[in-house]
Amino acid sequence: MNFFVWKNFTQIDEVGFEKKALKLYGFQYAHNKIYRRFNELLGVHPNKVRRLEDIPFLPVEFFKYHRVVSIEGPYDAVFESSGTTGMHRSKHYVKDLSIYEQSFLKGFELFYGPVSDYLILALLPSYLERKNSSLIYMMKHLIDRAQPGSGFFLHHTDELYKKLIQADKSGQKVLLFGVSFALWDFALQYEFDLKNTIVMETGGMKGRKREPVREELHALLTTRFGVPVIHSEYGMTEILSQAYSQGEGKFKMPPWMRILIRETEDPFRYLPPGKSGGINIIDLANVHSCAFVATQDLGKILPDDSLEISGRFDDSDIRGCNLLIMD
Questions:
Q1: Cα separation, 15 vs 153, whole angstroms
Q2: Nearest residue to 312 (alpha-carbon basis) of 204, 237, 165, 170
Q3: Which segments within the chain are labelled E, that is strand?
């Protein structure tokens, strides 16, 4: 069953988005047992939900402890988040991978143009070493559609260095996409003066003794790669869409993705642009799981409607998670 229709999906306007989001909320309330129970514990019923701000957002931690699905299997894929041995990992049960593929392809091309224009060099060692990564699935499909010679690099940094230099000097359009710690290490090992390359980081400094702030990371990368700005991708296992920053950490969302900023002390109160709080995501691509996710990330909406991400909640700051254990 494909409940959501993707025709003209990227043409959603303000009114159209809210209408589809409310319709999807009603569908998921009716068919997603975990999400419906969450609503019931909060005393929320669809007849009370008339605008986006009325919709309850499921804490992202639920994907670690419950099977959050609106349609029963079989599933095309089950994506798992990263984590250390023994810890709970989020699982996202994907009924129809074609929806994910449409989302990441349309999203990328909305901000960067045709994938086929790029040579994509992916430096994702920590992701390649584990199974069921939604990021690897996305990058593999982008690489398959990119210029010949595109590919993943695990620990072959000498080969990556030579390929990057050669491609950039030839005038080829290059996207160097990497997890933050791998780009950091690569930049410390080599120095470049890139003219035709976009350097894009996707976060991830876990396991490092000291995690640099975004400004420090981007300052190092711009200096060592010789590029004016560092681009960024923002996504997660629990959603099927991505936001992109083309510099200065300002993220733009595709039309089928919307951000609301919640107050840190009251998760049911929303903040105006310019005020920092918890990031709530509406992702209309999450048709068969839950489209309304309260993340552990902190940020604010800027005057141009872009999103600035400032950090994450400490575990002790997470609100509303006493509902994680539900009968």
A1: 43
A2: 204
A3: 58-59, 77-80, 91-94, 119-123, 151-153, 174-178, 197-201, 231-234, 243-245, 250-252, 257-262, 277-283, 292-301, 307-312
Instruction: Give the other-Cβ count within 10 Å of 57's Cβ.
Output: 22
Going residue by residue through the chain (327 aa), what tens digit of pLDDT does each one get?
A: 455 544 555 567 766 899 999 999 999 999 999 999 999 999 999 999 999 999 999 999 999 999 999 999 999 999 999 865 557 899 999 999 999 999 999 999 999 999 999 999 999 987 777 789 999 999 999 999 999 999 999 877 899 999 999 999 999 999 999 999 999 999 999 999 999 999 999 987 655 556 678 899 999 999 999 999 999 999 999 999 999 999 989 999 999 999 999 999 998 999 999 999 999 999 999 999 999 999 999 999 999 999 999 888 765 344 444 455 455
- Cα Dmax for the chain: 61
Q: What is the pTM assigned to this prediction? A: 0.91
Residue 250 contacts residue 307 (beta carbons within 8 Å):
yes
Domains in the chain: ranges and CATH: 14-82+89-95+256-323 (2.30.38.10), 99-245 (3.40.50.12780)
What value does the CA radius of gyration of the chain take, rounded to a whole number of Å?
20
CB-based contact 319:280 (threshold 8 Å): no
Residues 6+ apart with CB under 8 A from 265: 319
Pick from 96, 93, 104: nearest CA to 69? 93
